[in-house]
């Protein structure tokens, strides 16, 4: 035996051994393997459970995916049952090694492992001395439509005739207080030595569930003593360590956060084939769950929980697709990257929200429309609307924009000297002359619009589900809130921005026309803020959002609200000056502003993520210097790091299950 092998004998706990290696302990060949699982947790409490069990209740869908269909658990089972994904992993390994064996589960409990075994093995016998556990497992087998023989008796008194047998032993370890170091295997009731003696007399295929903090040396000694007394041939021991873990946000935020709770609940019902269920708190259509369904099934089989699987798809698949699509649409990878990491967009990639998918589908639809794949574009347009209803406005916009892009030379839209009336007249005449072509190209998108109108009529409004908290209101102040965001996110060199600002202020001081224009804009801003500011109850009560603090400390005070109107008006003047000097397409900018206004002014909530799609099309419309884009990418990357760090590491007390800062 070499020195490293000798050193291993002095280690106490199995956790301290290297994984996936064979080595000798007391002349016993031992292999330790490792398997990691991500735990799905959902918020909520049960009035029927004591306080120390509530944390297990949050893992209810990790323990049993069909928990809501009538799973029975007594208090002891909450912390002793083997979670479904781990049980499935064990069952699959046994099926590969011994596909025709009988199964005897000597301490079946409420059936976490036995249910999975019964789905793959022909003969499964479930034994437990506790009548409550027998009642639980009988009911739980019915929920999963699994067939097994259930016997109430002491396992030590059981005998089995078939020699081709796999014995499962998951004895209780001593309640919630087993975590003292190290765990004494002799403290088990019945003692491990007695269990192994009984088990090895029945079969040499034994699966034994033990705490992770066992003394491995003690386990080997007990095993050797039993095999020696029974005069059995010594076989290798395989110890598989099962860990439940996540990564960073998933590691820190282990239960669904805010709206994730509703989305995950709906996803879980779909995974359980309950397609008739609808969570009353959801307000958006079910495309998020339909598209994710096959991917989450696949990831679940790989050992990921539903929550982590949903977040993985949102974090990696959809943002990458969006970046690739926008790289082609923008014809500029840096601009596509910059949009992909906008702080208000990037943050939601880590959570199971609809925003990431909505942007991906709309981007695909727009790019396909530009490439003249009208029918395929309409499919993605429909999916986009079914992920977020307000995308119907942007479907109309991309069709109009696509038509204008094809005819911009004829209309001379790049000439800012031409009046808006001229453009409207020219556009109207062109539509009349091209009506047949328009219908042929956009007929599928027109059908989507008609279907949406029918939906509005049948549904009685845009919102599904929680209509009380998401009523449409006229909230024109949203445009005022959008302007500073557009100004901050506008990719322009800071020196150039400063020069434009100086130029705009200079014109205001020297030009009578500029003063008059600014005054009109200022009056409109003051009127909007005074008469059309809507205060949603969520903004006043939910202190997990940055907007809560902006409202509470600034916007809720009249003096600050009206002072900000001077800034809003100045931002509008500066941005207009920039776009005019750069000879951007005036008419298309006005069109974009109209659709941006329509998409925002009926939303009661102040949510920075609602600005994402307007920003997408502003980015698509304008051209920016490469050097400026690189600087903005650096700045946004730093901001994103700070936002994610604050979300994960800065916690505070509030009236909700979890309290973290977010947009």
Automatic annotation (TrEMBL):
Molecular function via GO: dolichyl pyrophosphate Glc2Man9GlcNAc2 alpha-1,2-glucosyltransferase activity; methyltransferase activity
Pathways involved: Protein modification; protein glycosylation
Catalyses which reaction(s): an alpha-D-Glc-(1->3)-alpha-D-Glc-(1->3)-alpha-D-Man-(1->2)-alpha-D-Man-(1->2)-alpha-D-Man-(1->3)-[alpha-D-Man-(1->2)-alpha-D-Man-(1->3)-[alpha-D-Man-(1->2)-alpha-D-Man-(1->6)]-alpha-D-Man-(1->6)]-beta-D-Man-(1->4)-beta-D-GlcNAc-(1->4)-alpha-D-GlcNAc-diphospho-di-trans,poly-cis-dolichol + a di-trans,poly-cis-dolichyl beta-D-glucosyl phosphate = a alpha-D-Glc-(1->2)-alpha-D-Glc-(1->3)-alpha-D-Glc-(1->3)-alpha-D-Man-(1->2)-alpha-D-Man-(1->2)-alpha-D-Man-(1->3)-[alpha-D-Man-(1->2)-alpha-D-Man-(1->3)-[alpha-D-Man-(1->2)-alpha-D-Man-(1->6)]-alpha-D-Man-(1->6)]-beta-D-Man-(1->4)-beta-D-GlcNAc-(1->4)-alpha-D-GlcNAc-diphospho-di-trans,poly-cis-dolichol + a di-trans,poly-cis-dolichyl phosphate + H(+)
Annotated localization: Endoplasmic reticulum membrane
One matching Pfam family: Methyltransf_15
Chief location category: endoplasmic reticulum
EC number(s) recorded for this UniProt protein: 2.4.1.256
Transmembrane segments: 302-324, 336-353, 373-400, 442-460, 472-495, 516-539, 559-580, 587-606, 633-652
Key words of the record: Endoplasmic reticulum, Glycosyltransferase, Membrane, Transferase, Transmembrane, Transmembrane helix
Membrane topology, from the record: Multi-pass membrane protein
Signal peptide: none
Cellular-component GO terms for this entry: endoplasmic reticulum membrane
GO biological process terms on file: 7-methylguanosine cap hypermethylation; dolichol-linked oligosaccharide biosynthetic process
InterPro entries xref list: Alg10, RNA_cap_Gua-N2-MeTrfase
The protein's role, per its UniProt record: Dol-P-Glc:Glc(2)Man(9)GlcNAc(2)-PP-Dol alpha-1,2-glucosyltransferase that operates in the biosynthetic pathway of dolichol-linked oligosaccharides, the glycan precursors employed in protein asparagine (N)-glycosylation. The assembly of dolichol-linked oligosaccharides begins on the cytosolic side of the endoplasmic reticulum membrane and finishes in its lumen. The sequential addition of sugars to dolichol pyrophosphate produces dolichol-linked oligosaccharides containing fourteen sugars, including two GlcNAcs, nine mannoses and three glucoses.
Family: Belongs to the ALG10 glucosyltransferase family.
Protein name as catalogued: Dol-P-Glc:Glc(2)Man(9)GlcNAc(2)-PP-Dol alpha-1,2-glucosyltransferase
Species this protein is from: Paramecium pentaurelia
């Amino acid at each position: 035996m070499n020195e490293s092998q000798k050193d291993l004998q002095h280690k106490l706990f199995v956790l301290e051994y290297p994984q996936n290696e064979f080595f000798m302990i007391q002349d016993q060949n031992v292999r330790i393997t490792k398997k990691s699982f991500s735990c799905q947790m959902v918020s909520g409490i049960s009035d029927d459970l004591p306080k120390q069990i509530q944390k297990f209740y949050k893992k209810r869908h990790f323990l049993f995916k069909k928990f809501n269909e009538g799973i029975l658990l007594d208090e002891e089972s909450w912390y002793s049952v083997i979670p479904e994904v781990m049980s499935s992993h064990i069952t699959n390994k046994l099926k590969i090694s011994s596909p025709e064996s009988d199964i005897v589960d000597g301490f079946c409990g409420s059936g976490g492992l036995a249910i999975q075994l019964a789905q793959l093995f022909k003969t499964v016998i479930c034994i437990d001395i506790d009548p409550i556990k027998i009642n639980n497992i009988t009911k739980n087998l019915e929920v999963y439509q699994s067939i097994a023989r259930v016997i109430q008796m002491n396992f030590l008194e059981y005998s089995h005739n078939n020699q081709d047998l796999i014995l499962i032993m998951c004895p209780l370890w001593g309640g919630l207080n087993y975590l003292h170091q190290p765990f004494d295997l002799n403290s088990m009731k019945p003692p491990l030595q007695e269990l192994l003696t009984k088990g090895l007399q029945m079969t040499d295929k034994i699966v034994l569930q033990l705490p992770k903090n066992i003394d491995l040396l003690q386990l080997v000694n007990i095993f050797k003593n039993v095999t020696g007394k029974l005069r059995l041939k010594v076989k290798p021991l395989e110890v598989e360590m099962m860990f439940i873990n996540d990564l960073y946000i998933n590691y820190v935020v282990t239960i669904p956060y805010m709206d994730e709770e509703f989305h995950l609940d709906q996803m879980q019902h779909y995974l359980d084939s309950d397609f008739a269920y609808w969570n009353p708190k959801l307000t958006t259509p079910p495309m998020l769950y339909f598209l994710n369904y096959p991917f989450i099934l696949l990831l679940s089989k790989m050992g990921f929980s539903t929550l982590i699987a949903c977040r993985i798809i949102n974090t990696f698949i959809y943002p990458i697709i969006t970046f690739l699509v926008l790289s082609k649409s923008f014809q500029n990878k840096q601009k596509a990257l910059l949009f992909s990491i906008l702080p208000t967009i990037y943050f939601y990639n880590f959570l199971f929200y609809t925003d990431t998918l909505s942007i991906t589908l709309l981007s695909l639809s727009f790019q396909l429309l530009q490439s003249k794949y009208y029918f395929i574009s309409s499919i993605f347009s429909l999916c986009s609307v079914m992920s977020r209803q307000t995308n119907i406005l942007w479907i109309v916009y991309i069709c109009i924009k696509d038509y204008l892009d094809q005819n911009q030379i004829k209309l001379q839209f790049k000439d800012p000297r031409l009046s808006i009336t001229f453009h409207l007249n020219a556009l109207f005449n062109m539509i009349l002359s091209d009506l047949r072509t328009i219908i042929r190209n956009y007929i599928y998108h027109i059908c989507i619009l008609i279907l949406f109108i029918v939906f509005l009529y049948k549904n009685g409004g845009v919102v599904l589900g929680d209509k009380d908290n998401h009523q449409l209101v006229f909230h024109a102040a949203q445009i005022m809130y959008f302007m500073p965001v557009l100004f901050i996110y506008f990719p322009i060199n800071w020196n150039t921005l400063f020069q434009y600002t100086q130029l705009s202020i200079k014109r205001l001081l020297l030009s009578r026309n500029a003063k008059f224009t600014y005054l009109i804009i200022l009056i409109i801003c003051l009127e909007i803020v005074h008469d059309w500011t809507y205060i949603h109850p969520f903004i006043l009560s939910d202190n997990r959002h940055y907007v809560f603090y902006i409202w509470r400390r600034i916007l809720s005070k009249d003096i600050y609200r009206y002072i900000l109107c001077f800034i809003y008006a100045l931002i509008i003047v500066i941005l207009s000056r920039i776009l005019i000097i750069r000879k951007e397409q005036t008419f298309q900018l006005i069109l974009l502003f109209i659709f941006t206004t329509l998409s925002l002014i009926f939303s009661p909530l102040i949510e920075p993520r609602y600005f994402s799609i307007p920003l997408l099309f502003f980015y698509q419309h304008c051209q920016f210097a490469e050097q400026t884009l690189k600087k903005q990418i650096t700045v946004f990357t730093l901001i994103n790091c700070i936002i994610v760090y604050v979300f994960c590491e800065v916690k505070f007390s509030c009236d909700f299950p979890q309290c973290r800062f977010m947009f």
